[in-house]
Amino acid sequence: xxxxxxxxxxxxxxxxxxxxxxxxxxxxxxxxxxxxxxxxxxxxxxxxxxxxxxxxxxxxxxxxxxxxxxxxxxxxxxxxxxxxxxx
Length: 87
Prior knowledge:
This protein is an all-alpha fold. The protein is built from 5 helices and no strands. It is rod-shaped. It starts with 5 loop residues before the first helix and ends with a helix. The mean pLDDT is 92.
């Protein structure tokens, strides 16, 4: 996260209004909900993990044991259980 000086991006009137509530502090202004992306959607990581999880569920349905899946995917057995039993 980078910091931006308020004087560089906000009108003076707005800065004065904000100063009624906060002075000399760092505040975080979140993005609007409609611009928020789920983790990994931009980089493609989300797709890779979703595909991996689908593969794990499929292998489990075919009879592969949980401990085998954990070893194959380098995950804990508890993580494999969470993936298998999630909706």
